[in-house]
Amino acid sequence: MTHSKLILNGVEFTLLDIQTFRQQHGLPHPFGVGLFEPKDSTGLAHLDQAGSSAALHALPAAVLNAIPAQVKLTDVMPLMTDLGVTFRLTLDQVNAAIGLRPSELDYAVAGFEDVCQAMGYALMRAHALKQPPPSFDAVYAAWLAGSTRLSQTVHPYHHHNEDWQVQILNNAYGRCGLMVKTVNNVACLHDAVYACP
Question: Are 180 and 168 spatial neighbours (Cβ–Cβ below 8 Å)?
Answer without folding.
Answer: no
